[in-house]
């Protein structure tokens, strides 16, 4: 069967690809930039790639006419603009392109929407369902609550809160009930309904066997991790204050925090169990989902993370065009550090930068910079990295985005997603000349007007110590 996957670079899409390939399906992935997919995915040689930005109809490459089914796994919740309008536009353009094919079924992963007064996010999800129904293909909707798995937004937020705060003063939404489901079960349902005629033109709630409040989920996480945690509910915290609280404590962006907090006022519990007749399945318990996620983390085998999903609020869709660092109108700080050990060992240190490893020198300064970034509405440094050992273009490293990770030529290029009066790049490269080796480390800044220039010169004394110390520690670091 030929299957189209829209949202192939996202958290769910990245994990669905191998499931579909294992079943022998011919998978067509709709992506905005083929270069990122080739670098990011282990399956790039096994799928067909077509390009298109669903927010721009003219940019969408024609879908293959002989499609049998299509997955729509796109959302705009982390956008800084009106995500509801963007989601509707994206779905409309998708339907218009899909109607030119012979596709029999569209499968959409949505959210449980059983409450009467829905949040803007859940209302938008329901509206997208209505838009997709307008297409010629039969629509199957799977409505999930919280998805638990290594790298999922829900899991990472629960993890951030529980690991970092022995005592939590929390808003009242922690008592809202939900029915979490494991990522493994979500993938099983997504694959199980495909071209299953019993699922045509129907919507199904999907969830695990446990109905838990957010409080219970955090306390269960603490129990599994053998942590002692105390939760104190403060009922008068407003949604906006709650959003700021979530934003500063966890690695989520403020826009996403707002959407999540507003959604958390709605109970997301299954009212309909019709999915059991269409795709019989025994789902994992919440505790089993946590234990599986910990195994993946310990093995450094997290397949995908919500943090690596492209966020237009921080970076232009053509970010890989910035692999060549600009030279005109820029300021640079260069460090050249010679070394005499094997070059592969030093470059391994380069590729391990950020996250749990840290920045090798004066980590406390980087943490302060991340905290200030949070205060001014930036991403901060809490995002870490998906894997401690693997890195690909498009991945997140704290408040940087990976543009290039070239192992053959030993070059790593990062682009800053922090709030800045300009643009910034950080490049590492191993240079071998005349039998001698050195680490080249170049920080490039393109200032935006007078404030940008003042910022650069104000930071120069810190660069003098930080970048020299970092380069020295990178070439000397041994595990």
TrEMBL record:
A GO molecular-function term, please?
protein-containing complex binding
Q: Which PANTHER family match?
A: NADH DEHYDROGENASE [UBIQUINONE] 1 ALPHA SUBCOMPLEX SUBUNIT 9, MITOCHONDRIAL, NADH-UBIQUINONE OXIDOREDUCTASE 39 KDA SUBUNIT-RELATED
Output the Pfam families linked to this UniProt entry. Answer: DUF2867, NAD_binding_10
Name the source's superkingdom.
Answer: Bacteria
Alphabetized InterPro entries for the sequence: ComplexI_NDUFA9_subunit, DUF2867, NAD(P)-bd_dom, NAD(P)-bd_dom_sf
Where do the NAD(P)-binding domain residues begin and end?
7-144
**Which SUPFAM superfamilies does this one have?**
NAD(P)-binding Rossmann-fold domains
What is the protein name for this chain? SDR family oxidoreductase
């Amino acid at each position: 069967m030929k299957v189209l996957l829209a949202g192939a670079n996202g958290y769910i899409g990245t994990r669905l690809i191998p499931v579909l390939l294992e079943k022998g399906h011919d998978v067509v992935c709709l992506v905005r930039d083929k270069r990122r997919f080739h670098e990011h995915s282990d399956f790039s040689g096994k799928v067909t790639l077509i390009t298109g930005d669903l927010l721009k109809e003219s940019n969408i490459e024609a879908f293959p006419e002989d499609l049998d089914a299509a997955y729509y796994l796109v959302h705009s919740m982390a956008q800084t603009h009106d995500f509801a309008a963007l989601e509707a536009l994206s779905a409309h353009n998708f339907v218009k392109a899909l109607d030119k094919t012979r596709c029999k079924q569209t499968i959409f992963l949505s959210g449980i929407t059983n409450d009467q007064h829905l949040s803007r996010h859940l209302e938008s999800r329901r509206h997208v369902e209505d838009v997709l129904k307008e297409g010629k293909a039969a629509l199957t909707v799977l409505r999930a609550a919280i998805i638990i798995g290594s790298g999922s937004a829900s899991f990472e937020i629960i993890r951030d809160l529980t690991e970092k705060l022995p005592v939590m003063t929390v808003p009242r939404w922690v008592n809202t009930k939900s029915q979490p489901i494991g990522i493994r079960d979500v993938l099983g349902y997504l694959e199980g309904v495909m071209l299953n005629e019993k699922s045509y033109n129907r919507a199904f709630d999907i969830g695990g066997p446990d109905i838990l409040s957010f409080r219970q989920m955090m306390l269960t996480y603490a129990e599994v991790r053998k942590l002692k945690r105390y939760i104190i509910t403060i009922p008068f915290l407003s949604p906006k204050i709650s959003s700021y609280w979530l934003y500063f404590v966890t690695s989520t962006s403020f826009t996403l925090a707002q959407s999540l907090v507003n959604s958390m006022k709605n109970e997301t519990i299954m009212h309909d169990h019709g999915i059991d007749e269409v795709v019989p399945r025994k789902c994992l318990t919440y505790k089993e989902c946590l234990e599986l996620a910990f195994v993946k983390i310990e093995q450094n085998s997290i397949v995908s993370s919500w943090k690596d999903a492209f966020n237009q609020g921080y970076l232009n869709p053509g970010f890989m065009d910035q692999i060549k660092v600009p030279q005109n109108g820029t300021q640079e700080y260069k460090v050249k550090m010679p070394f005499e050990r094997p070059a592969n060992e030093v470059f391994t240190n380069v590729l391990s930068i950020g996250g749990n490893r840290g920045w090798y020198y004066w980590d406390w300064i980087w943490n302060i910079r991340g905290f200030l970034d949070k205060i001014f509405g930036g991403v901060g440094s809490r995002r870490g990295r998906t894997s401690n050992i693997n890195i690909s273009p498009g991945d997140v490293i704290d408040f940087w985005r990976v543009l290039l990770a070239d192992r053959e030529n030993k070059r790593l290029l990062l682009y800053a997603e922090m709030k800045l009066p300009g643009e910034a790049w950080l490049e590492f490269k191993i240079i071998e000349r005349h039998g001698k080796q050195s680490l080249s480390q170049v920080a490039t800044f393109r200032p935006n007007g007078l404030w940008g220039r003042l910022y650069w010169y104000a930071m120069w004394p810190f660069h003098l110590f930080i970048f020299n110390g970092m380069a020295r520690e990178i070439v000397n670091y041994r595990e």
